[in-house]
Design brief:
Elements lengths: L3 E10 L4 E3 H5 L6 H8 L3 E3 L7 H16 L8 E5 L10 H9 L5 E5 L5 H14 L5 E8 L19 E10 L4 E9 L7 E2 L11 H6 L5 E2 L1 H23 L8 E4 L4 H11 L10 H4 L6 H11 L8 E8 L3 E8 L21 H41 L1
Helix pairs in contact: 3-4, 7-8, 7-11
Length: 389
């Protein structure tokens, strides 16, 4: 019998300390208005003493297990998606597995930048579909603040710390991931980078002096990549799912920048009420971003059993990932079909036509907006130079 991956538990953990835009005004040459206008961020959580990637992971996992009514000893696998582990070695996943008391679980860490949670969720689903495992913890977590240059106003306003987890369990009832897309545009690997953390530039007095241990980002390249890939990947996974756009109840995008989300919303012509946005409360928490938004959406009652939700993200690599989920945390009456999702033969051609029309319209809007942005760029650059002069 085919197995499906059902999310049965979820939890989150964020540091106690909140750093507001007004706090940042005292640290660098910036303002609340400047930050909100360009990013939509108003505050972010910053890890303090004793608050680490592993500690936040453990707290989030414990909440997920408690909500699902599953004991740690029942867990088969722990997957931690992060780019900021406690140590270079050992893997933080093993530390979390031990502290949870998940004594029979395997564990590994997955590094895919801001798309890490979706990558990890898809990976967990594959283990379940093959029948190898039945209960898997998936965590998206980051402690980015130590890698932030707090004198650089262009990057220090963006990032925050936090983590969230889900428990994925095997089910013989159709639910979970309907379709997914994972991608990488590796030629732009240096668009978002912390150059001083690896083997190319081992940590030294020179890397410290040059600030190579801090995150660096080419904002223009990342913005262009993100707006294009978010739109395209959403189109692809919705079409692949066999659903129509009208059947999507909620979209949870990576919370990097409100302007990126807004542009994607306008291109896709999404009702803003169907888009989860909490970037104002957390900033960009990288791999933790999507699961934190998922937890908040559930707390706010924006996601109900039977709903269809799109998760979509982009990040370092440059990578992107998207998935359509059928949300059904509690087992219900079995769906009387041999395969799922399955629309009747009568409506499948209609669905394909509707999706093709929608895709064409979105693509046309995106091209027009790209042309408008390209035309405005030199004008904006001239205006900035004029103001400086």
């Amino acid at each position: 019998m085919k197995q499906y991956g059902r999310i049965t538990g979820w939890g989150k953990s964020v540091p106690e300390r909140i750093l507001t835009n007004h706090d940042l005004e005292q640290m660098v040459d910036t303002s609340d208005e400047w930050i909100v206008t360009r990013t939509g961020i108003r505050e972010r959580h910053i890890a303090g003493p004793g608050e680490t990637t592993s500690s936040m992971s453990v707290e989030a996992c414990q909440q997920a297990l408690e909500r699902a009514g599953v004991a740690p000893e029942e867990v088969d696998l722990v997957i931690i998606a992060t780019s900021s582990p406690d140590y270079f070695c050992p893997p933080v996943s093993s530390m979390v597995q031990d502290r949870l008391g998940a004594t029979r679980a395997g564990a590994f860490t997955l590094v895919a930048g801001c798309t890490g949670f979706v990558y990890a969720l898809v990976t967990a689903n594959q283990f379940i579909e093959t029948g190898l495992y039945e209960k898997i913890l998936v965590v998206g977590v980051e402690t980015l603040s130590p890698a932030v240059d707090w004198t650089d106003r262009n990057t220090c306003v963006l990032f925050g710390d936090g983590g969230a987890a889900v428990l994925v369990e095997a089910s013989d009832q159709p639910t979970g991931i309907l379709s997914c897309e994972l991608g990488s545009q590796g030629q732009d690997w240096d668009a978002l980078i912390a150059p001083g953390y690896g083997t190319v530039k081992p940590f030294s007095e020179e890397t410290l002096r040059n600030g190579d241990h801090y995150l660096r980002m080419d904002g223009r390249r990342v913005f262009k990549f993100a707006t294009r890939k978010m739109t395209n990947s959403v189109i692809n996974v919705v079409q692949e799912s066999g659903l129509t756009w009208d059947e999507i109840d909620l979209v949870i995008p990576h919370q990097a920048n409100a302007r990126i989300i807004d542009l994607a919303v306008r291109r896709l012509k999404i009702d803003p009420e169907k888009v989860m946005v909490n970037v104002d409360r957390y900033g960009n928490t990288s791999a933790a971003s999507i699961p934190l938004a998922l937890c908040d959406a559930l707390e706010e009652g924006r996601l109900q059993s039977g709903d269809h939700v799109v998760l979509v993200g982009f990040g370092a690599g440059l990578t992107w990932a998207a998935a359509v989920l059928h949300w059904q945390p509690v087992a219900e009456e079995p769906i009387a079909v041999d395969d799922w999702p399955l629309l009747s033969n009568l409506f499948q051609p209609v669905t394909r036509v509707r999706n093709a029309v929608w895709s064409t319209q979105v693509t046309a809007r995106a091209r027009l907006q790209d042309m408008a942005l390209a035309a405005m760029t030199p004008i904006n650059q001239w205006q900035r130079r004029f103001k400086r002069d």
